[in-house]
Design brief:
Structural class: alpha+beta
Number of helices: 8
Radius of gyration: 17 Å
Order of helices and strands: EEHHHHHHHEEEEH
Number of strands: 6
Helix content: 25-40%
Mean pLDDT: 93
Shape: globular
Distance between the termini: 26 Å
Strand content: 15-25%
Low-confidence stretches: 1-10
């Protein structure tokens, strides 16, 4: 299918980083913006490592299993989350409670071992100070943080088979992340994420949200990883992450044609 490029008005959004790297070598091919080295919350881009964990541990079995029912008390910030969810729908609609059920099933010891083995950002899954929410909250504007450059590094290690997970886990994760084909023939896989900075007391600052779109594109045996990080001057009606995604997808064909 062709990629939908439905662009929203930037509405005060600033692009903190746009970066591309060759997946086979890790060589950075392009880096623009002042925020490529700064760590922020991964938010829902962390569903990529959670999917790898889930498939490697046998909790997830294929693109449509297991299907788990929504239960009262689960996070339901969007109405789309109040329904049975399988891995494909989880990734498509970014269902937070499904991520949390995977990590709960793993348990903290295995969860932490995976994060450490992935070399993911600051590797801090401790969660909120004085609580024990790291297993289910650490990536949600909490203790875990990663930079755009580190996102490229993680994705490159994944595609080169350097992470402590099975080849099948990588393949299944790629399947549920497929985002379409560019007009110039690149197969794109990616995930959005939206989150907030934290104040001195550790509470999320609800204004000025971050918006991520990270992933990779493949054509003729070559893969290029990418990371886009935007931040709004104030919260907008359209999620920052959706606009980061749509903006990058609009620019990506020309960027990919230009890389050597």
């Amino acid at each position: 299918m062709a990629l939908a490029l439905l662009l929203a008005t930037p509405a005060g959004a600033a692009t903190l980083c746009t970066a591309l790297a060759d997946a086979a070598t890790g060589k950075v091919l392009r880096q623009d913006g002042p925020g490529c080295e700064a760590r922020v919350t991964p938010a829902s881009t962390f569903k990529i490592p959670i999917a790898l964990m889930g498939y490697d541990a046998g909790i997830l079995t294929d693109a449509h299993a297991p299907s788990w029912p929504y239960k009262p008390g689960y996070p339901a910030w969007r109405k789309e989350w109040k329904r049975d969810t399988d891995p494909t729908y989880w990734m498509q609609e970014s269902v937070v409670w499904y991520s949390q059920e995977i990590t709960r099933t793993l348990g903290m010891e295995r969860f932490r071992t995976y994060v450490d083995g992935f070399g993911y950002g600051n590797e801090d899954v401790s969660g909120t100070r004085g609580t024990k929410d790291g297993l289910t909250e650490s990536w949600l504007s909490n203790s875990l943080a990663i930079s755009p450059r580190e996102q490229l590094g993680f994705l490159g290690r994944m595609l080169r088979g350097e992470l402590p997970v099975s080849k099948r886990a990588v393949g299944m994760t790629a399947e549920i992340l497929h985002a379409g084909t560019t007009p110039n023939g690149w197969q794109v896989h990616g995930k959005t994420g939206m989150g907030f900075a934290r104040d001195a007391e550790g509470k999320p600052v609800r204004g000025k949200p971050y918006g991520w779109f990270v992933g990779w594109a493949t054509k003729d045996g070559r893969s290029v990883t990418f990371a886009r990080l935007d931040r709004d001057a104030a919260r907008q009606e359209t999620p920052t992450s959706w606009r980061a995604r749509d903006g990058l997808l609009a620019e990506l064909p020309a960027m990919l044609d230009a890389v050597k």
